[in-house]
Amino acid sequence: IAATQPSTDWHLKENAREHHTSKFSSKELIVRRGQAFTITFNGTEQPEQNLIFIAETGPKPSKTTRTLATFDISSTVSKEGWSAVLQSSSSDSVSISISSPHDAVIGRYRLSVQSGSSSPESVGTFVLLFNPWSSGDDVFMPNKAECEEYVLEEFGIIFAGNKNHISSFGWNFGQFQGDILGICLSMMDRSLYYRQDPVTDVSHRHNPRYLGRVLSAMVNANDDQGVVLGNWSGKYEGGKNPSSWTGSGEILQSWKKSGFKPVKYGQCWVFAAVLTTVLRCLGIPTRTITNFSSAHDADGNLRVDEFYDADGNHLERGADSVWNFHVWNESWFTRNDLDPSYSGWQVLDATPQEESGGIYQCGPASRHAIKEGEVELDYDGPFVFAEVNADCMYWNYDSATGKKTLIYSKSTEIGASISTKAVGRDDRVDVTSDYKYEEGSAKEREIFKKARKKLGLEDKFDPTAPKQEEIEQKPDISGKFKVAGTLEVGKDLNLLLVLENLQSNAKTVNVNMTAWTTLYTRKRVSQIWKDSISVTLAPKEEKQFPIKIKYPEYHQQLTTDKTIQVTALCHVEDGIQVLVERNITLDDPAIDIQVLGEAKVNKEMFVEVAFTNPIDMEVKDCILQVEGSDLLQGTLELRIPPLKASEKSSTKFKLIPSEAGLKHLVINFSCDKFADIKTFKTVNVIN
Question: 321-333 and 286-296: which strand pairing?
Fold first, then answer.
């Protein structure tokens, strides 16, 4: 190359269009592996056949670790390694098409060019990502609409609530905004794997299975000063309440700005949403999954034990628990380490629940392997299998004597209405049948037994397990809680306890009832109500008992999860106890969003948000939080004056959309009486 400094044209626009990377707002070339990109050198006077290219990544690039490639100009694209093909040349410029292999290490590369015997000159850097559009890639996804949703879509819907009452909220993943890609690249370099052995770690970065596992550890703060610090105490001083976040961008940017100190605080959907952002950013198709009545089986026996005292209070005993819902991820890639039937969707879980290999990471577990009970296959099969399929044992525990008595066991309780967002629509899709055979079917029991057998649980005596005669005892009565009226924050809670005598002789029943506010993990926070009744049920008789919990009784104790657990422990004379339980999630009052006029690229537009105070007391400390990729930069925060009883507030703000297409505005409204009311609005931006 001549003494005059040649200039390089990276063809940013054209390459980005070809590589589905146009949404990144970067001055650096961002391309996908296994696909050619074009680069032009202006002011070169060397014959192009003498050019040698050097692409390298990581701290100690080498050919053996496949982090260094040297290649000269050839007439065809190499099937194996990197290659350069001449596209055109003139007296002072040369255009080259460079291709990387389908299984290249991903990350930031340094590109140099050497001509003849002179020393290599640096051309600059580019970023190489996974390529779900390319059939040779481990993350190849044949359905283009799915690629759009699971890689390019920056908006998501996360399902929550409980299995009787599924709710949902919007989330701004924002994987293409600002410096999110840069943060994702530095996240890989901060993992324990990289710190222990940087050269080996970087050489494994061609493998989505490896990176998925590493990043599931990095998204939580445990072990490695990762992104988000979990907090399930119900007290969130010194940080943000997990339910107040509306997107991943603010979290990832705070992590970077603070010098990579964990961001306070997260719960399961926050970990899953941040991992979705990171993996979509790197090009691995990823989605969030919500499992209702999700088991946390701490001791690996595929059984969850729940304890109650004689008054019906749920006791915090043992490490097992059942959550109203739990959110994790599925990522799409080939499992080269397993039989081909186990490729496809893989479960990853960044919520720190149990250690795996000594650190808080979980997965990838093949979803197909979970359905078939193949729990011995890598990684973390037993834990994920239990989340959707554990058996539930309910015990009465007497703290004075230490004696526990089985109330009943249930094999159909765990893993209900497993949900994810539809492709290209804002609807819920049920994927329960992809995780297990139908509850109560012979096949489902057969798979459960197979999983226990693989874990060696069928053969060995378990002193904590209920005896067969305990399991076979049949109760004399049945009971359930029915909801009467609406379940809304700010309103009284009306329920009916329905008891039915299953026998042909009369039964006397003493019922102890309690209600507690809880977290979504069913961890108890405050008792808000208790009562006891004694009833006689004639043969086969059904009776209903109304229960009212008034708003003033619960409003100060209600957590931001807005969940209440109501329990009735029925002591039947001369019979076994019956436990009736209902987990209730209260709905928020509505927020109304109106887009005023039409939305055009780079033109001011106005949005109006209205909220009516539904209770007969003043609400204050009102804050409106707004975000949305391509509609506004970062997060907008607006303070709203206090609202008297039944008063309506209306707030206007302006946006300047930066890109055309269907965009989503995510809104979060909080005040002293209502926490984190969420809604979203689709905005169709035109050019």
Answer: antiparallel
Q: How confident is the model at residue 3 (pLDDT cuts 50, 70, 90)?
A: very low
206 is catalytic: no
Catalytic residue among 20, 102, 137, 268: 268
Residue of 326, 368, 571, 664 with catalytic role: 326
CB atoms within 10 A of CB 299: 14
Q: Is position 268 annotated as part of the catalytic site?
A: yes
57 strand-pairing partners? none
The 10s digit of each residue's pLDDT in 615-667 is: 999 999 999 999 999 999 999 999 999 999 999 999 999 999 999 999 999 99
Give residue-wise pLDDT tens across range 67-101: 999 999 988 887 789 999 999 988 888 999 999 99
Give every CB contact of residue 372 below 8 A, 6+ residues apart in sequence: 447
pTM: 0.95
Classify domain 474-585 at the CATH superfamily level: Immunoglobulins (2.60.40.10)
- State the architecture of 7-129 in CATH terms: Sandwich (2.60)
Rounded to whole angstroms, the Cα distance separating 111 from 98 reads 11
| pLDDT of 273 above 50 | yes
Return the CATH architecture of domain 591-685.
Sandwich (2.60)
Contact indicator for 185, 191 with CB cutoff of 8 Å: no
Average pLDDT, the chain: 94
Q: Would you call 349 a catalytic residue per the annotation?
A: yes
Q: Any binding-site annotation on 444? A: yes
